[in-house]
Design a protein that fits this description.
Blueprint: E1 12-13, E2 16-17, E3 20-27, H1 34-45, E4 51-58, H2 65-75, E5 79-84, H3 90-99, E6 105-108, H4 120-128, E7 133-141, H5 146-162, E8 171-178, H6 179-186, H7 195-201, E9 206-213, H8 225-239, H9 242-272, H10 279-311, E10 319-323
Helix pairs in contact: 9-10
The structure holds uridine-5'-diphosphate and magnesium ion.
Subcellular location: Cell membrane
Protein name: Glycosyl hydrolase
Organism: Vallitalea longa
Length: 327
């Protein structure tokens, strides 16, 4: 019998070749929760007949996260890790992880158990039915403030209004992707990454499953409002040039209004004669036009800045150490 799998992954039960699934976990300062995460995941995957790889990406943690991962690897050869040279943020950490996936499919999960491992078997089932991208949609989010839920809700609606590809609402990065999808994602080497959008861009057959998002098991969220606003602007500007068009429309509209007003003023001056008062309207029009111009320049700047960042074509990340089965 001939296998096209590397002998390392070859485990057969009753002559069947087991497929390998990589669980990809970006981690940044997760020492409090990473062991609990590992135990919970192992409980689930020990019950199913697949080969597993648990691939941690240590995103420049400043605590004991890496040491804990190394200790896990010593006890469990299914654990592998990529140690990045510094903190790059979750988006880049996921990209680094995808580059090192050895499995036939990958499941991307947060380390804080907000993405329940109990969903893993369901995802695999759907994958076996032939879906390329099985994503988990939140039907509720516990332990998150009203403001965070509300702003996230508005953002997803806005983004889907603005961009041409449909971006799944209320969906995180928690999903299973097959080889086809992984290889597609790996081709995006842009440094300004909005991975949730990339999942939509690649297309393929998608399947949605619903879940209740729990609170963080331990530790603190790494996000603050500034980071979230940054990600939101990233999401919009990397996916659509609609803001530029809106600026053009507003410019056109105010220009038209100004032109009509100009004709009115000129005619009135010709007919009624020169009239001095008008200081208030003059100043408010100046301020209004001025601020619109500044907003326009700001929007333009966002795109120019992005062009600047992408044209440098810098490497996405550097690796301090990789331990795993990828050649
Ligand atoms: N994360 C990361 N790099 C960062 C920030 C976060 O790899 O710079 C990881 C983090 O360890 C976690 C996941 O991304 O596994 C989600 O982070 P977090 O739980 O803080 O975000 P939230 O769930 O609050 O959106
Ligand atoms: Mg979280």
């Amino acid at each position: 019998m001939k296998y096209f799998y590397d002998s390392k992954y070859l485990i057969t039960t009753g002559g069947r070749v087991l497929k390998t699934i990589t669980i990809l976990v970006p981690c940044y300062n997760e020492e409090e929760v990473i062991n609990i995460f590992y135990e919970e995941v192992v409980k689930i995957i020990d019950k199913i007949d697949y080969n597993f790889e648990i691939l941690f990406v240590n995103d420049g943690s400043k605590d004991m996260t890496l040491n804990k991962i190394i200790a896990m690897r010593i006890n469990d050869s299914r654990v592998s890790y990529v140690d990045l040279s510094r903190n790059y943020g979750k988006e880049i950490a996921m990209a680094a992880g995808l580059d090192h996936v050895t499995g036939d499919a990958v499941i991307i999960m947060d380390a804080d158990l907000q993405d329940p491992p109990s969903l893993i078997p369901t995802m695999i089932e759907e994958w076996e039915k032939g879906y390329d991208d099985v994503y988990a949609k939140r039907s509720s989010r516990k332990g998150e403030s009203f403001m965070k839920k509300f702003t996230s809700h508005c953002f997803y609606r806005l983004l889907s209004k603005l961009s041409k590809v449909e971006i799944q609402k209320d969906t995180g990065d928690f999903r299973l992707l097959n080889r086809k999808a992984i290889d597609a994602l790996k081709q995006f080497r842009e440094s300004g990454r909005y991975t949730k959008g990339l999942f939509s861009l690649i297309g393929f057959k998608k399947k949605e499953i619903l879940f209740d998002r729990d609170e963080r098991a331990a530790g603190k969220t790494k996000w603050n409002y500034w980071k979230l606003i940054g990600l939101a602007i990233e999401g919009i500007t990397t996916f659509t040039i609609m803001p530029l068009r809106i600026a053009t429309f507003i410019g056109g509209f105010t220009g038209l209004f100004a032109f009509i007003y100009m004709i009115y003023i000129v005619l009135r001056t010709l007919i009624v004669g020169v009239e001095l008062p008008g200081y208030a309207s003059l100043v408010s029009i100046m301020l209004f036009i001025g601020s619109i111009q500044l907003v326009g320049i700001g929007i333009l700047g966002e795109y120019v800045g992005r062009i600047f960042n992408e044209t440098k074509n810098r490497p996405l990340y550097f690796i301090n150490k990789y331990e795993g089965d990828k050649e």
